[in-house]
Amino acid sequence: MGDFVAVTRNYYVFNRDKWQALHGHTKEAEISDADLQSVKAFHDKISLTDVREIYWPLRRLVYLYFKSFRQKRQTLAHFLDQRVGPSPFIIGIAGSVAVGKSTTARLLNLLLKRAYPNLRIESITTDGFLYPNAELTRRGILDRKGFPESYDMPRLLSMLNAVKAGAADVPVPMYDHQTYDVLRDQFIHLERPDILIVEGINVLQLPSNSQIYVSDFFDFSVYVDADPALIEEWYLDRFGALLDTAFTDPDDYYYQYAIGNRADAFAMARRVWHDVNLKNLQEYILPTRSRADLILHKTAHHRIDRVYLRKY
Ligand SMILES: Nc1ncnc2c1ncn2[C@@H]1O[C@H](COP(=O)(O)OP(=O)(O)O)[C@@H](O)[C@H]1O
Ligand SMILES: CC(C)(COP(=O)(O)O)[C@@H](O)C(=O)NCCC(=O)O
């Protein structure tokens, strides 16, 4: 916690009460009970209180920043005295494996879509840019999955470049947790989004051999933060859920664990957490926290208890 206190000098710090007061004045008109029900159905464990108290102000902040981003593009066009092409507002979401990045990304995506149906809002994850398991094995780094060297960073950067430049159809590779590998033939096709959410453990990292960083493409970034002991619990919960869905499918990566001894499977997952994901968090992910525009700090049961907003 020590270094975090120092970092807060660059951030406004909010408890829930202070943060939720920043929702603006239009929330009743924008979100109905039916919308909230659909958020709940979409992920049955998300607390609706969090949606109201944390995500409404967040959505408003993102929208205000998005508007000023658009204004800046117009200013550029005015200065150049010529049209400038469309370019998306890109939001990065960083944090540990299993801290809840995808859930945060999906919720923000849904709330933005509900509030601004005329905007094209899309989401991707960087795990599609992991090298396939065969390649990780060839390089002898299968047990380093998630570490900086396990990602094809040049490919990720060139994809972001194309999207930011307004390219018409940008294919983005996908990762599948159930097979534990990159999908060979499936891609998300980005069609000139107005807002793009990019989620991944590595989005705020600065690889030493690169002149350009992933974060150079971001107009706003979020770090999802929590005590590593809690994240381990969430990792193990998710592992349990993956086991529960693996029983019927021998192609599932978790099948062998699902049909074997459950206690042994959990002992293996605990080892992977400790030797791989916790190590990655401490060495490569946590050091990027102080680069985020916004930090969502979670406590038990995924409850967000504090929000940090960058001052400058
Ligand atoms: N706000 C939330 N409320 C309840 N459960 C959550 C929430 N966010 C994440 N989870 C659960 O925590 C686990 C990890 O979340 P996930 O979004 O998959 O993490 P990440 O994308 O960071 O790896 C999952 O089992 C997910 O269901
Ligand atoms: C693919 C990942 C690097 C990405 O993590 P995510 O943020 O999607 O949970 C991670 O889920 C992973 O597989 N880590 C390697 C060690 C493990 O099996 O958990």
From TrEMBL:
Enzyme class, spelled out: transferase
CDD domains membership: PanK
Catalytic activity: (R)-pantothenate + ATP = (R)-4'-phosphopantothenate + ADP + H(+)
Domain (Phosphoribulokinase/uridine kinase) ranges: 90-233
EC number: 2.7.1.33
InterPro entries hit by this protein: P-loop_NTPase, PanK, PRK/URK
Keyword Zinc: no
GO molecular function annotation: ATP binding; pantothenate kinase activity
Gene Ontology BP annotations: coenzyme A biosynthetic process
Entry's localization field: Cytoplasm
Keyword ATP-binding: yes
One Pfam family recorded for the sequence: PRK
Amino acids binding ATP: 95-102
Keyword entries, A-Z: ATP-binding, Coenzyme A biosynthesis, Cytoplasm, Kinase, Nucleotide-binding, Transferase
Principal subcellular localisation of the protein: cytoplasm
GO CC terms of this entry: cytoplasm
Pathway this chain belongs to: Cofactor biosynthesis; coenzyme A biosynthesis; CoA from (R)-pantothenate: step 1/5
Family, similarity comment: Belongs to the prokaryotic pantothenate kinase family.
Name of the protein: Pantothenate kinase
